[in-house]
Design a protein that fits this description.
- The strands form two sheets. This protein has a three-stranded antiparallel sheet. The chain has a two-stranded antiparallel ribbon with strand order 1-2.
- The chain has 14 helices and five strands.
- The chain is elongated, with a radius of gyration of 22 Å.
- Strand 1 and strand 2 form a beta hairpin.
- By secondary structure, the chain is mainly alpha-helical.
- Helix 5 crosses helix 6 and helix 5 runs parallel beside helix 12.
- It folds into two domains: 72 residues; 175 residues, no CATH class.
Length: 273
């Protein structure tokens, strides 16, 4: 049982290194935790092999303490580690069907290919990657939302420039964006959720109230649940009276106007996930 425990810890430690690829200042701590876990796991294997059970026991204590520290640091790390073992597969129940897309197209009185084009451009045809929702964390939006909520953004920007910044950037891409979100939540959960674009249609989190959700947390839970919920958010967004020009652009098949209205003036520079 001890050997099996050490083997599982070794696998998790290897997974943790995926977060340290950029060697960013704010996630360097994950590296030493992973190394400690690898060292202690290897020690358990070695001491058990040579029947040095007393030393294997102490090595296992260190290994389990490292596991506990990692869990406290960020529960999202474990979710990502497990998700990577899914080989990128998404449960069939989470994937929207052509029929569901067609239903929304009919409600909006637009053609199906228009909605399909949005999914391909915004999220490369999938609302999830390795079991996690496709997101893009916007540090300049986080700066704005934190300031709006009374935080000392100037000090935070000096401490966490990759997370809190008056200018856009700092993108890591893929599931590393989910990790950036997790780090941002340690500063303020609500502002962090509001500062990411979510799912197939990359709806910004700060729209949660406009779209009729009870809270930013509820919005995140639904966007994390399934592509059908992401599609529902897109419908709420486009159907809202404040976005009548956006809906008209979709009806007119005017992709340029749609992209400008949907992603803002800098739509041509939008970072792909």
């Amino acid at each position: 049982m001890t050997t099996l425990n050490a083997f599982l810890c070794l696998l998790i430690a290897v997974r943790l290194f995926t977060f340290d690829g950029k060697k960013s200042k704010y996630n360097a701590r994950i590296s030493w935790l992973a190394w400690l876990m690898i060292t202690s796991s290897a020690s358990v294997f070695m001491f058990s092999f040579f029947d040095l059970l007393h030393r294997a026991y102490y090595a296992q204590v260190i290994m389990n303490m490292t596991l506990l520290i990692c869990f406290i640091k960020s529960r999202a790390i474990w979710r990502y580690c497990v998700a990577r073992n899914l080989d990128g597969k998404i449960e069939a129940s989470n994937v929207i069907t052509t029929e569901q897309l067609q239903t929304i197209a009919n409600k909006l009185d637009i053609e199906l290919p228009m909605i399909q084009a949005v999914t391909k451009i915004e999220a490369r045809s999938s609302g999830f990657k390795n079991g996690l929702p496709v997101i893009l964390f916007e540090r300049h939006i986080f700066y704005r939302q934190l300031k709006k909520n009374g935080f000392n953004v100037e000090q935070l920007a000096k401490t966490y420039p990759d997370l809190v910044n008056s200018s856009a950037g700092g993108y890591l891409g893929g599931n590393r964006e989910n990790y950036r979100l997790t780090l941002a939540k340690q500063i303020d959960t609500k502002s962090a959720i509001e500062s990411a674009s979510w799912g197939l249609f990359q709806i910004m989190g700060f729209h949660w109230q406009l779209l009729g959700y009870e809270s930013a947390i509820q919005f995140e839970e639904l966007m994390t649940g399934s592509e059908e919920m992401q599609l529902d958010a897109f419908y709420r967004f486009v159907a809202h009276k404040s976005n009548s020009k956006l809906l008209q652009a979709m009806k007119d098949k005017d992709f340029s106007v749609f992209a400008k209205l949907y992603n803002g003036p800098a739509y041509k520079k939008t970072v792909m996930i």
